[in-house]
């Protein structure tokens, strides 16, 4: 049951995907892309970046999807795709793409920070704080990770509590 659920969750990866469960650890392996696919993915991604500078975000999304179909682990294309989704006002697709990025690389701080920010915007404060807490653990010196954690904690605290000085007042 678990392996079939994981297979459907990871169907965006280059096929075939091999999922093993041993000692409560899930290991996922997928086929490496050919050199031709990697070169084509790089070319498509570069076109997407150029198009993004021009503001054609619908086309950016399509180019990034094509690049990711050629090389699923190309995180830069996934990030550009997230940006295109946000520019075209599709935060649900951006969130789904960020989760995919984290499934490919659970230590991707940028995806954690961005997903925490989107969770704050959608009002999911508990999720935002959980995600934001993970980012500084991975990169303690990352300013964006620390800012995301502060933003998630700030928004989670009721407005009235933020107005009160700590410890009930200031000593004189």
Task: Please tell me about this protein's structure.
Strand 1 and strand 2 form a beta hairpin. The radius of gyration is 19 Å and the shape is globular. It contains 9 helices and 2 strands. The chain has a two-stranded antiparallel sheet with strand order 1-2. Among the domains are: 44-103; 106-156, no CATH class. 67% of the residues lie in helices and 7% in strands. The protein has helices at 2-9, 35-54, 57-70, 75-87, 91-104, 109-121, 125-138, 143-156, 159-163, and strands spanning 17-22, 25-30. With 172 residues, it is mostly helical.
Shape: globular
Radius of gyration: 19 Å
Question: In sequence order, what are the helices and strands, one letter per element?
Answer: HEEHHHHHHHH
Class based on secondary structure composition and strand pairing: mainly alpha
Summarize the structure.
By secondary structure, the chain is mainly alpha-helical.
List keywords for this structure.
172 residues, two-stranded antiparallel ribbon
Please write out the topology.
Layout: H1 2-9, E1 17-22, E2 25-30, H2 35-54, H3 57-70, H4 75-87, H5 91-104, H6 109-121, H7 125-138, H8 143-156, H9 159-163
Antiparallel strand pairs: 1-2
Helix pairs in contact: 2-3, 2-4, 3-4, 4-5, 5-6, 6-7, 6-8, 7-8
